[in-house]
Design goal:
single chain; 542 residues; 5-stranded antiparallel β-sheet; 15% strand; elongated
Length: 542
């Protein structure tokens, strides 16, 4: 007959003795009768088995009775009603027997389950989605369901990569004999691509059980994570974990070789990072200190006392930035210096620590340079140098940039060089690989052999130790204002991708957008349109 499936043939005829001419035998040994014409219209495989091979018995002992019944009823009714208990059996039957419309509906059913996942989804529901996607990928070579699970689970909006992965790996011993075990671990690695420390912490918990049987699984995971982007603490934890595995009693020689290879590989990467550090230097105020650590002090004197004990405060500029940001958060930028009541004490700290005073042009926007208590804080203006380029938001935050600064060499009236004197600050962008802030860095190029056609690098009169970086933001109307960056923390892209965040500054990526309702650590924030640009400003003090 010329019929287009899915179609309702009348499910009441299923198993009817006068109607059935083929029989399906599922795992429980039962026998379910059906009509070969109806099933053949849905399945070209059944059509071949019944018409070409004249088969009357269809062996489906791989599948449960419930799944076979559901499959046949769906062929008869043209309506599919899957449930979680039989999902993997149904989707494999649809694949084996090539029932294309059923395959599409099952894929859509699964994706709908994935789409409704949120922060309140239970571990059991997440586990179902994860294990079924791994099974489908393994059993029928369909990776699209796993791709949707990995994408959803690793979303910053859901954070299942941390919640789910930790619980999954804790119960790893219960799953290590499963046929989908290795593909499951591969999926875990994909989900935690941007949070590899999650795997390190979870495996560390497994190894604490001192169960040598878990070493193979642990090695499999650790071999596949990317350690190049690990921060210092996580890298240290990674090495300590490998050492603990090596110390296990009765460790198989194959596992020992794998761990040793990972230690050697990590050493090579560390050497590469050290080589990079030798060609560049970190800037004193580019440690991206967190504002939340200074926000809640009652007054500036208490804050100053804290700053005197803080190891990251290594010069007066970093100390002043903390006082200024604290005051700005309380009263705004125009009244900030008036809120700081400890300038006299600040001057004494500068003298006691032999730190350079603050240049007048670093504070000139406050119009407070004539205050008596600033006498021991300020010095004449220092060399202020702007970057040659004003960067768009994407250029600065998402790309790697060699930022050039030109200046007049103080010791050379006549210069034989064909290009201008200057220096380069290297900015490493946030991406690729996710929205983690960790890769972002600002470093001073100290390598004399660094190649640049239009700039003569001068290291004799300038060094990272006497540089202090700020940023000038040019808004969409061309108006500009300068801000310190020392206590803004790492910049990052907000989880919805609508704007970049750097401290109290919010830079919209596209359009004006909606001002986000967020629980910020700042009492107020600044917002900028996508047309805004950023100029880096370096103050060079003696």
């Amino acid at each position: 007959p010329d019929c287009k499936v899915p179609m309702n043939f009348g499910v009441q005829y299923l198993s009817c003795s006068s109607h059935c001419n083929i029989f399906f035998e599922p795992a429980d040994g039962s026998c379910i009768g059906a009509n070969s014409v109806i099933i053949s219209l849905n399945s070209p495989v059944i059509h071949y088995l019944t018409t070409e091979l004249a088969q009357e018995i269809i062996d489906v002992q791989e599948f449960s009775n419930e799944a076979v019944q559901c499959f046949l009823e769906s062929c008869y009714s043209g309506d599919l009603k899957p449930n979680k208990n039989i999902f993997r059996h149904i989707i494999k039957m649809a694949h084996v027997f090539k029932v294309s419309w059923m395959n599409r509906k099952l894929n859509n059913y699964f994706r709908e389950l994935v789409n409704v996942v949120d922060v309140e989804t239970t571990f059991d529901d997440l586990l179902f989605l994860f294990e079924e996607s791994v099974y489908v990928n393994t059993a029928i070579k369909n990776g699209t369901l796993m791709d949707s699970v990995v994408k959803k689970f690793s979303s910053e909006l859901i954070k299942s990569d941390q919640f789910f992965v930790c619980q999954f790996l804790v119960s790893l011993p219960l799953r290590s004999n499963s046929s989908s075990f290795i593909p499951g671990l591969d999926a875990i690695v994909k989900i935690t691509k941007n949070h590899t420390q999650v795997i390190i912490n979870a495996v560390s918990g497994l190894i604490q059980k001192k169960d040598v049987a878990l070493v193979e699984e642990s090695c499999y995971l650790l071999e596949r994570i990317d350690t190049s982007s690990l921060q210092f603490d996580d890298s240290k934890a990674y090495i300590e974990l490998l050492e603990r595995i090596c110390a296990l009693e009765n460790l198989p020689i194959t596992s020992f070789k794998k761990i040793n290879a990972m230690l050697i590989n990590n050493a090579k990467k560390s050497f590469h990072r050290i080589s990079q550090d030798l060609s560049s230097k970190s800037l004193p105020n580019c440690k991206f200190l967190e504002f939340k650590s200074i926000k809640d002090f009652e007054d500036s004197n208490a804050l100053l006392d804290y700053l005197c004990t803080c190891s990251d405060v290594t010069n007066g500029y970093i100390m002043y930035d903390a006082l200024h940001e604290w005051a700005v958060n309380k009263v705004g930028s125009k009244l900030a210096n008036k809120e700081i009541s400890c300038f006299k004490k600040f001057g004494e700290v500068l003298q006691e620590k032999h730190w350079t005073k603050i240049a007048e042009n670093y504070m000139d926007k406050t119009n407070d340079s004539k205050r008596e208590d600033l006498k021991n804080v300020l010095q004449p203006s220092c060399n202020r140098i702007e970057s040659q380029k004003a960067f768009t938001l994407q250029e600065l935050f998402e790309n790697n940039n060699d930022v050039k600064f030109y200046f007049h060499h103080p010791k050379r009236e006549k210069c034989g060089q064909t290009c201008r004197c200057g220096f380069i600050v290297q900015v490493t962008g946030l991406f690729p690989g996710g929205i983690l802030p960790a890769p972002f860095s600002i470093r001073f190029i100290s390598d004399h052999d660094f190649s640049s056609e239009d700039i003569n690098l001068n290291m004799d009169c300038i060094d990272a130790s006497n540089m202090h970086i700020a940023m000038k933001i040019i808004d969409e109307q061309g108006e500009s204002e300068e801000f310190p960056i020392t206590w803004l923390g790492y910049p990052y892209k907000e989880e919805t991708g609508k704007y970049f965040v750097w401290g109290r500054h919010r830079f919209f990526v596209k359009g004006q957008g909606v001002i986000p309702k967020e629980k910020a650590i700042y009492d107020w924030c600044r917002y900028y349109l996508p047309e805004s640009k950023i100029v880096l400003v370096v103050y060079v003090f003696e």
